[in-house]
Design goal:
alpha/beta
Length: about 260
């Protein structure tokens, strides 16, 4: 079974292609379960997400294709929510969805994965940056608000890597994820970025598998060409760390299926 739970729409203002085109592409690539998890609205950096007034449209459009293509593919409805204290909104958390992806894209006001702000890496101690990032991941897990950890080590996007062993940096966050009963996605977007590898890295996959944390898969598609991108590679990585099942969701209930 091919699962792809992390995909965006044009409502986030930095993706292209229609919802229906995404589904047609997913069907052509023999994806069995396809989740839309667009960037949830938030009163912060609004240029990179839908507005609160667009949530109904987003959900209506996803549910429309869910019904239209129900005999060809299973479609899920979700949001990717930025974990940013003071900005996570109950209007999002109360929505009737299949799952929430929790992601860290900001350290304070610094959008560290935005190429516009890449220069800040050179002004900081890289190990401290990574430590602060994984502290935020741990806090996100402890919040109990989300079902899936999005792109666990996104902080590596521009290939600014720590000198310290990443497993030591991430170990407390991994424990928090395990305690929160969350799943972690293998996300293909890293293959399309300067770092040139999946999220999470192989050393982190070692740690995740040691803690027996469920995994799932996501293209993190922002364009038609991203759908199903490197999915076979992701599955092979998961198998290499002993995984045979992955997570899917329905009304926020996790279901483990063979992949």
């Amino acid at each position: 079974m091919i699962i792809d739970l992390h995909n965006h729409t044009i409502l986030c203002n930095h993706a292209e292609g229609s919802i229906e085109e995404y589904i047609q592409s997913a069907i052509a690539k023999k994806i069995d379960i396809f989740g839309f998890s667009d960037h949830a609205p938030m009163n912060f950096d609004e240029a990179y997400r839908m507005s609160f007034s667009e949530m109904d449209t987003y959900e209506k459009d996803v549910l429309h294709v869910k019904e239209k293509y129900k005999d060809q593919i299973k479609i899920l409805l979700a949001y990717e929510v930025d974990f940013l204290r003071g900005y996570i909104d109950e209007r999002v958390l109360k929505r009737n969805v299949d799952y929430f992806i929790g992601s860290v894209h900001y350290l304070g006001s610094w959008g560290f994965d935005n190429p516009e702000f890449i220069g800040e890496y050179r002004t900081k101690n890289i190990d401290e940056v990574w430590e602060h990032y994984f502290e935020a991941i741990g806090a996100m897990a402890k919040s109990g608000l989300f079902d899936i950890v999005g792109h666990l080590d996104l902080i590596k996007v521009f290939n600014f890597l720590p000198k310290k062993d990443v497993r030591l940096i991430a170990k407390e966050a991994i424990k928090a994820i395990k305690k929160a009963n969350m799943s972690i996605e293998l996300n293909a977007a890293g293959f399309r970025k300067p770092v040139g590898e999946q999220y999470p890295s192989n050393p982190l996959m070692e740690l995740i598998s040691e803690h027996d944390i469920p995994i799932t898969f996501g293209s993190d598609a922002h364009a038609l060409s991203h759908i199903g991108y490197q999915q076979e590679e992701l599955r092979e990585i998961a198998k290499a760390y002993g995984y045979k099942k992955c997570a899917t969701f329905e009304s926020r209930d996790r279901i483990l299926v063979n992949f």
